[in-house]
Design a protein that fits this description.
Layout (H helix, E strand, L loop, with lengths): L9 E5 L4 H12 L3 E6 L13 E5 L9 H5 L3 E4 L9 H22 L5 E5 L26 H14 L7 E6 L1 E3 L7 H8 L2 E5 L5 E2 L1 E3 H12 L7 E5 L5 E2 H12 L4 E5 L1 H18 L7 H7 L9 H7 L7 H14 L4
Helix pairs in contact: 1-6, 3-4, 5-7, 7-11, 8-9
Length: 335
């Protein structure tokens, strides 16, 4: 942020046209940053047209041309990543290799004051079904999916330069909000009268609304006390899957009924969709790697550390976040 006569801060954002990245970029502009956005396609980033946003078409698998952009940045937000893939190796290419390339760019071109904020995932630590959830003091991270393993390995690469540059890692829980494609099928099914649940168990989860996650990202990025650390980010509460689906139904279709699908049926669907993905070479929302996460007893994590050390406080309740998400989905023709 700038004051009169002060230098305008410049941010470099990977994955700027995605769900979390777009919401982050909009908030950076509100805070008077100038932003360079690395996007895979400028056509899909038209919503980011702004005088203080520079769109860079490309990816971190071919990083040679990005040195000058890294050099002028005061802070780098690494949001880009691969969340679904046809083959396990693609998770490591999209998460680990790209992070390694970015870190190499930073060590070669970045000014010494530059900070790197890496958006990882609770998947890097693995599941937890008991409150208050997994936290930063847990002795071992045990990711259960290739996605989680690739994010964990990418975290190690980020921390490898912690003695040269300020870095911070955030592990969000399940994120929801406007522009989220991941949970859109659940909202859409509910609009047609069906609330989908996998398995006959409570399935406790931690959640974070995207605006609160963006606030946590910027708080970590601008606070020296965060340097060299890893933080989980949630709204501080735990929810059952039924609670989440009922909150969605309340704002879309109160008459929707809960359809509980046996885990055996979900497993079959994941295998079939995985095969379909391999035959078409197009990643599917359901696949064998996603099954490794779905079959767990719960996904809880604790945000106590970021609350105590950085003073983070969520502003959004589940109900208000769902309400705004539904309004955006409808306005955008997603429902």
């Amino acid at each position: 942020m700038t004051t009169e006569g002060a230098k305008q801060l410049h941010a470099f954002v990977t994955g700027g046209s995605g769900f979390i990245g777009t919401n982050l970029v909009f908030e950076l502009i509100k805070r008077h940053y100038s932003v360079s956005c690395l996007v895979r396609s400028e056509t899909k980033a038209r919503h980011l047209q702004h005088k203080d946003i520079e769109l860079l078409s490309g990816d971190l698998n071919n990083p040679a041309s990005l040195g000058a952009q890294i050099q002028k940045a005061d802070i780098v937000f690494h949001v880009a990543g691969t969340t679904k893939a046809v083959r396990k190796s693609e998770y490591f290419k999209g998460n680990l290799d790209t992070t390694r390339n970015l870190v190499q760019l930073i060590t070669q071109h970045a000014p010494s004051h530059q900070k790197l904020v890496y958006i990882s995932s609770q998947a890097a630590a693995g599941p937890c079904s008991k409150e208050p959830g997994v936290n930063e003091s847990a002795p071992n991270s045990l990711p259960v999916s290739a996605y989680g393993q690739s994010k964990k390995e990418a975290e190690k690469v980020v921390l490898s330069i912690a003695d040269q540059f300020p870095v911070v890692i955030l592990r969000p829980s399940i994120v929801f909000g406007p522009r989220d494609h991941g949970m859109k099928p659940l909202f859409k099914a509910t609009s047609h009268g069906i609330m989908i649940k996998s398995g006959f168990r409570d399935f406790p989860v931690s959640l974070i609304y995207v605006d609160d996650l963006v606030r946590a990202i910027l708080l970590a990025g601008t606070t020296d006390a965060a340097n060299g650390k890893t933080f989980y980010v949630t709204d501080g509460k735990s929810y059952t899957w039924d609670t989440l689906m009922n909150a969605i139904a309340a704002h879309i279709n109160p008459r929707a009924f809960l359809l509980t699908l046996p885990l055996s049926l979900i497993w079959i669907a994941c295998q079939i969709m995985g095969l379909l993905g391999r035959l078409s070479n197009r990643p599917q929302d359901l696949n064998p790697d996603k099954w490794c996460e779905i079959k767990q007893a719960g996904w809880l994590c604790s945000s106590k550390c970021i609350q105590i050390e950085l003073g983070f406080r969520p502003h959004w309740t589940l109900e208000n976040g769902i309400k705004k998400t539904v309004a955006w989905y409808r306005k955008s023709g997603w429902l």
